[in-house]
Amino acid sequence: MANETVIETQEHEHGHSHDVKDNELWGGGKEPFRASYGKLMMWYFLLSDAFTFGGFLIAYGALRFSMDTWPVPDFVFQTAPFGISHAPLIFVTFMTFVLIVSSVTVLRAVQEGKRENKNGVINWLIITVFGGAVFLGCQAWEWTNLMYTEGMNVYINPFSAHVEKGKYLTFAELEKEAAAKGWSKEKVSDHETYYFKDKDGTKYFEKRDHEDKLPKKMDIEVSTPYLITYSHHFHDYAPGAYKTEAGVVKTEQYGPKSFGTLFFFITGFHGFHVLSGVVFLLIIAIQSWNGTYVARKNGYEMVEKVGLYWHFVDLVWVFVFLAFYLL
Amino acid sequence: MGHHTTVKEDLGVAVKGFIILLIVTFIEVGIALVGNGHIIEGFKLPKIILMTPIMIVFSLYKAYYIVSIFMHLGHETKGMAASVVLPMLIFIWAITAFLWEGKSWNNNQNYVNDKNKESQIVPKDKKTSLIQPKEYISTEINFL
Q1: Which residues of B touch A68 (CB under 8 A)?
Q2: Which residue of A224, A265, A299, B111 is 20 to 30 Å from B125, comparing CA positions?
């Protein structure tokens, strides 16, 4: 360990100092805060990292407060693998569960490290690596679903919530409205999908829900969440037409694009922490296995440090979970 | 490295922590689902005054538990714990200030949009206005 050599050189250099008396120098025997250099510095690194994440999440809050409307989390995050839909927050709760389990298993590794139990350390670290990998896999699925099924990316956010009351129009109703207003009926090229186009070029489609069907509830309340369907048949968005209480026909507006940007950026930054944590855990597991820590004065302290980092990843997830999924 | 805990004690800490974090998470998700009307048809809880504070308090409790027990900060010296926790207090200011700022962007944006809409209404007696309203009024500001 680098810090041990540093301590030793400090002891040797006592004689060279003329301005400071020997008894005023730190002799290396008693550590400040009774914590080792490495552990202390890991704490301060984590403190700085907490400020980075804090800054991102505060930016999320400020941008969210600056918008009239915002996507509703339990509508956006309602799908899970194996064709599960209409299950709000269930998949992300599973991801949280995985992260809590891996946090407990790394705690076990730290405890076994204090007992100098090599096999215990390795086993618990490997289980933790597995937990981290499962979490990353879940996140990969969530991102893929949002990007390639729902059509959200850092530029376009098709999720939002209504700001006024109204009713979705069926195709027949829409056709009647269009005829009265003189809108043209057009066909998506090469596809049997029709839409209407007004003089400004705005396109009016019949509303489609998550499963590409007419929604079960055609009535719109204030703050009813919606998704502008990304049609995989013709590779474009099809904003649904609705009629407000005042009798105006409108199309769904795209949601604030900062939602998509912040979501991918913040969960991506957290995911990158998980990924690097998995790499660190593997390195520490290999070093435990080849006996590096048996030879060290401070034993399995590296396991404690990587444990601190891994717990921090779980800690950050508590707040990412709060900001994106619960509030 | 002194090891003054038994395997049983260690396991106890781990299992207790696991159960506490899991239960708190389940309560949070449960409140979110019930409160947003997903479990009982037509039943909702007030969001801002009830659900939001509960979620924040539970999340802070989870954070406290992870830091204090799992990361062992509760067992370090008081000075070290303070050197890590006290700088966090700046978040109280930062969250207040920036959410306030966000709301003020929203107000300004809505104010300008409303003014634009007002000036879009052409007076009835000015039927032959040379400038078409759409041309001199910029589209709604949307800088985000």
Answers
A1: 106, 110
A2: B111
Q: Verify that A216 and A76 share a domain, yes or no.
A: no
Contact criterion met (CB < 8 Å) for B79 and A88 = no
A31: contact with B, CB 8 A cutoff? no
Tell me whether residues B144 and A43 touch, CB distance under 8 A: no
Domain count, chain A: 3
Q: B45 is in which domain, residue-wise?
A: 1-75
| A260/A255 Cα distance (integer angstroms) | 9
**A61, B98: Cβ pair inside 8 Å?**
yes
**Is B3 within 8 Å of A114 when comparing Cβ atoms?**
yes
Tell me, what DSSP letter sits at residue B26?
H
Residues of A in contact with B5 (CB under 8 A): 111, 114
Boundary of a domain, candidates B49, B75, B101: B75
Question: How do the pLDDT tens digits run along chain A, 327 residues long?
Answer: 445 445 444 445 544 546 777 777 766 667 778 888 889 999 999 999 999 999 999 999 999 999 999 999 988 999 889 888 888 999 999 999 999 999 999 999 999 999 999 999 999 999 999 999 999 999 999 999 999 999 999 999 999 999 889 999 888 888 888 888 888 888 887 778 888 888 887 888 888 887 778 888 888 888 889 999 888 888 888 888 898 888 888 899 999 999 999 999 999 999 999 999 999 999 999 999 998 888 888 888 899 999 999 999 999 999 999 999 998
CB pairs under 8 A between A and B: 145
**Domain boundary, last residue among B43, B75, B107:** B75
Within 8 A of B87 by CB-CB distance, chain A residues are: 47, 51
Inter-chain CB proximity B76 and A65 less than 8 Å: no
